[in-house]
Each structure stands twice: as structure tokens, then as C-alpha cells.
Amino acid sequence: MSEATTSNRQVQAKQWNWFPWLMAALLLPPIALPIAFALNSFKGERGQAAFQSIALQPSAEQVSPNFLEEVRALGQFPDHLDTSDAALPGRLAEAFARHPWVERVERVQLGSRGRIAVQLEYRQAVALVEISGSTQRQAITGKGIVLPAGADLERWRGLPVIEAAPPPAGKPGERWGHAAVESAARIAALLHGDRELFRVQAIRLREEGLARQLILRTEGGSEVVWEASTGGGDEVPDAEKLRRLRAYAREFGSLDRPAGPYRLDPRPSTGLLRAPLGMSP
Question: Where would I find the H helices in 46-109?
């Protein structure tokens, strides 16, 4: 083989060395662009989300105007959340559960593009508690849980007032800490579904030593002896007391008719007793 032929082949080989690089340069952008776009989209779906953008189901407007900010403070969260954090749903659930208005966290869901949805069950007030010696009133749940002071009490105007109560031992979100108040709250919850029928305005507490009385007072001035014990004695169950009062109110139209006010006693095994107010049934 001549030296000229060998030299020509070497030149041709050098010329073809750049061909793979040229093809790569032409082919890579169409492939790389979709990959980059997909990575950027994924980053957008699970990136940053403002805490205030969390969607609440149902809305917290009726419980607190600053609800989300209060939850953020409880959980010590920053203003923006990293939605790629696998521990975020659990941390959010814990923070929401600590808020005194929250009965239960049903679900925390991370959606696309950084959306966060939280489904909650809020606590419901069944009565207002009037602190003895003051005009201060505070809402309470049927489980005896203290609700935050300063809440809009106007919307609970129709709820019964638990009178002459000691101040709460627990803070908002905790139990009231007094057996008689918690018992009265439980009764208020029991009556809640029939509040339009019974028209109970107040629940009065009386305690002397071991003796305790819970007296319900209607809008018409009648009194119902719901509980009066000295630590012993037999009474029919609360469900039976409720049934007797419901039957009476439906028969006469209210607990104050036909010619009240009355003193009603649904506790005896013989049935509901009635007497004019001021006289024992």
C-alpha cells in the first residue's frame, strides 16, 4: 500500500471522529427538554406551599378568624411548607389536633402543585358556663371540654347557661376539671337535640357536702329536678328521664303547660311527678 493511500485513509478517519458528537448534539435537546420539563413539573407539584393556603374542610370561619395562624404557631411551622417532606402530613395532623377547637383530624391530603387539604371535625358548644361571682361566660362541649374564651358567644344565645360554676381548672382544649360542671355539660348535650321542645334556659348547680343537685330551668320558669343525690339512692337512667320529659312536652306543648310554672321530677321509678313551683311533687 502506498504512503499516499494510507495518508488519505487517516484523514478520512479523523473527519468521521466528529460525526457521533454532531449526532449527539442534534438528538439530545429533543430528549433532554421533556426530561427537564418533567423534573420541573414534579418540583412544582411537591415543592413549597404557603401555610395560609391550606384548604380546610369545613371552613374554620365559625370557630376562629385566625385559626390557621394559631395552628401554625402550635406546630412551630414556617410561613411556607416543604411538601416533599414525607413527615409533613403527620406533623400537620398533630398540630391541628392540638388546637382547642378541633375534635378530630379526619384527613391530611397533599395534592398536586403543592395543594394541601385538611379535613376536620370541630368541637361544638352545648352550653355556656357562667363563672360564680362574675358575669364571665365560657363555652363548653358535651364532653366537658373548655372552649376558648373570647369566642363569639352571640351565636350561642339559645344554649342553656350553667350557673354558679367554679372557674375551669383546665385550659382551652382540656376538661373543665369540676365534676358537677362536666355533668351539667353532659346533660346539656343530651337535651341538645330537643332544645326547641324543652326550652331549657339554665342549669343550676347546688353542692353541699356530698349532696349535689342539678336543676333545669325553662324559659317559662318551670324547674326540672334532673339530679339530686347524696351519694346513694336509685334514679332511672338519663335516657328514661329524657323520654319522660319528651313525652310530657309533646303531650302539653311545653314543659310549662298546661298551667305552669311547675316543679317536674322525672327521676322516680313510678314515673314523672309534677307539682306547682314552690311545692314538692
Answer: 67-75, 88-97
Question: What would the CATH number be for the domain defined by 127-276?
Answer: 3.40.50
CB 172 within 8 A of CB 147: yes
Whether the CB-CB separation of 36 and 43 falls below 8 Å is answered with no
Q: Which fold has domain 48-122?
A: Ubiquitin-like (UB roll) (3.10.20)
Which residue has cell 324547674?
223
Write out 182-220 in H/E/C secondary structure.
Answer: HHHHHHHHHHHHHHHHHCEEEEEEEEECCEEEEEEEECC
The residue behind cell 353542692 is: 207
Q: What is the C-alpha separation between 150 and 152, in angstroms, rounded?
A: 6
Do 127-276 and 48-122 have the same topology in CATH? no
Predicted model pTM: 0.76
Domain boundaries, the chain: 48-122, 127-276
Q: What's the CA gap between 30 and 185, in Å, rounded?
A: 69
pLDDT, tens only, 84-112? 999 999 999 999 999 999 999 999 999 88
Question: What would the grid cell of residue 128 be?
Answer: 355556656
And the C-alpha cell for 223?
324547674
